[in-house]
Amino acid sequence: MAEHIKVRPAGGTWVVRAGGAVIAESDDALELTEGDYPSVIYFPREDIAMAFLEESSHSSHCPYKGEAGYFSIITKSKTLKDAAWTYEAPKDGVTEIAGHVAFYNSADEVTVEQV
What is the pLDDT of residue 106? Predict the structure, then answer.
């Protein structure tokens, strides 16, 4: 694992809102910090309304975490393309994020917050 990446319990209750709906709520979220980047909250899949997510063909590679797959969020009024991602088989040192999904926090479309 890269020394600059830390994964720990996020603590408290976290929610994701998009299109006027709560699409995820968890007391078991994880917080990943990577160097100077803002922290990212990863939600367990069982705490996400997966019916709002549609698997995307988009993918990316992180040399420290591995291959990421993406999801679009389907709301009543639009599709938010590639708004969430997951590492199905993360590299050693960040294996805790397997089975979790993270969301891009964009104040106007997707909100990730602690409540």
Answer: 85
